[in-house]
Design a protein that fits this description.
The chain is built from 13 helices and 6 strands. Strands 2-5-1-6 form a 4-stranded parallel β-sheet, with helices on both faces. Helix 1 packs parallel to helix 2 and helix 2 crosses helix 3. The protein is globular, with a radius of gyration of 21 Å. The N and C termini lie far apart (about 80 Å). The structure holds iron/sulfur cluster (SF4). Iron/sulfur cluster binds next to helix 5 and helix 6.
């Protein structure tokens, strides 16, 4: 078995690690590894996992606690593709808030952003969503043409921040049509063998369900790599904690005042 490895030969101890990963992915087992910095963990886990995915029509999820850590995986995949001349596709995915191309939503806090974004998708009023995925059958047809055009310049993987810029600057038949980058990323993920994303895409049950439906992936046919897993307990705790912010109180006060005014008028 030739494992796709990004360098000419593994370092000391890296080979042992690499073989442990291969043994785990090829026999459907879990592997918990603790290794020092500099041993080449990313190369040791991505190579065998990608080898398995390409042979078994599966998917590798590479989950990180921070967006800044996506680039390490992107670099590793580029090295593997170059060294082995192997063809595959990877999707680098960031949350909606970071991938949004609507300038009017910039600077909003998390709750406010998701409230507005959900409303716009629900009442079918986001033009960027319409161009990227489409609300109606005819919009969906046009959105597929947009995706095809964008993919012509995508390559094996395009880092998320670059893809957001491509989506912002997207034009079709001479007309500027910015595309919702999150919707584009999740569509690219459908035909990708590697998906680089944040922990919460799979560890949060609410997000996981819609994320897997959107990307048409199943956990059964996947290898899940949780990078820097010592961060998981804190991230999960934060995710499950309810917090109240100053902005949230201000917004609710505004809503309540407007409700009182309109109710008062109608009496
Ligand atoms: S659907 Fe996309 S572009 Fe529209 S508001 Fe939401 S994240 Fe932004």
């Amino acid at each position: 078995m030739k494992i796709l490895f990004s360098h000419s030969r593994p370092r000391k101890y890296q080979e042992e690690f690499l073989m442990d990963v291969w043994e785990a992915v090829s026999s459907g087992k879990h592997l918990l590894a603790h290794a020092p910095t500099g041993i080449g963990k990313t190369a040791a886990v991505l190579g065998p996992s990608l080898t398995w995915a390409l042979e078994n029509d599966g998917t590798v999820f590479f989950l990180t606690p921070k967006i800044s850590q996506h680039q390490i995986a992107v670099n590793e995949l580029e090295r593997i593709a170059k060294r082995h001349k192997v063809k595959f596709r990877a999707a680098d995915i960031i949350g909606r808030r970071y991938a949004c191309v609507d300038p009017s939503l910039e600077g909003m806090d998390v709750d406010e952003f998701y409230e507005v974004c959900n409303k716009r998708r629900k009442n079918e009023s986001c033009p960027y969503y319409a161009w990227a995925r489409g609300f109606t059958p005819s919009q969906r047809k046009t959105a597929r043409l947009h995706l095809e055009k964008l993919l012509a310049n995508y390559g094996m993987v395009t880092p998320a921040h670059k893809l957001v810029d491509m989506c912002k600057a997207f034009t079709y038949e001479g007309e500027r049509r910015p595309l919702c980058a999150y919707e584009i990323m999740t569509q690219i993920a459908r035909d990708s063998q590697v998906i680089i994303a944040d922990y919460f895409h799979l560890l949060s049950s609410g997000i996981r369900e819609s994320f897997l439906i959107k990307t048409k992936k199943t956990l059964r046919d996947s290898v899940i790599i949780i990078d820097e897993a010592h961060n998981v307990p804190e991230r999960v705790r934060n995710h499950l904690s309810v917090s109240i912010t100053h902005l949230l109180v201000k917004r609710q006060r505004r809503k309540l005042s407007s409700w009182v005014r309109s109710t008062w008028k109608s009496i």
